[in-house]
Amino acid sequence: QVQLVESGGGLVQAGDSLRLSCIDSGRTFSSYTMAWFRQAPGKEREFVASVSRSGVRTNYADPVKGRFTISRDNAKNEVSLQMTSLESEDTAVYYCAAGWAATIYGQATNYDYWGQGTQVTVSS
To answer: What pLDDT score does 123 carry?
Structure first.
């Protein structure tokens, strides 16, 4: 059973950094491709970043390339998202997701389990 819990969101100013963390309380974490998605008010959920089961391969959405870094620690059942140079456009609820059959290029429908989300607000 996969149970994802995100943490690390908050209110920051433009240009600041923030690190999100997602912990899986299950025992099969390393079997899943992991990803972060986000949803801003009035907008659809969008892909942010993903990481392969081994942690070697990653994929990023264009708006966050060079600013965000996704990584995972399979020993700790944790996936993190380090966000730097935050912009007001990054304001959203950020969701952690796990996909059994997903690749790092998969869409949201390929992910099986989702966390409850953590709010990130960037003031300009």
So the answer is: 97
- Token pair in block for residue 50: 């993903």
Position 32: which residue type?
Answer: Y
Q: pLDDT tens digits for 7-28?
A: 999 999 999 999 999 999 988 9
Closest CA to 89 of 15, 3, 6: 15
Task: Give me the sign of the Cα torsion angle 29, 8, 107, 86.
Answer: negative
pLDDT at 1 over 90: no
Amino acid making up residue 61: A
Structure tokens at 47: 């892909």
Q: Do strands 33-39 and 92-99 pair parallel, antiparallel, or not at all (unpaired)?
A: antiparallel
Say if CB 20 and CB 83 are below 8 A apart. yes
Q: Which of 11, 39, 19 is nearest to 114 (CA)?
A: 39
Mean of the per-residue pLDDT values of the chain: 96
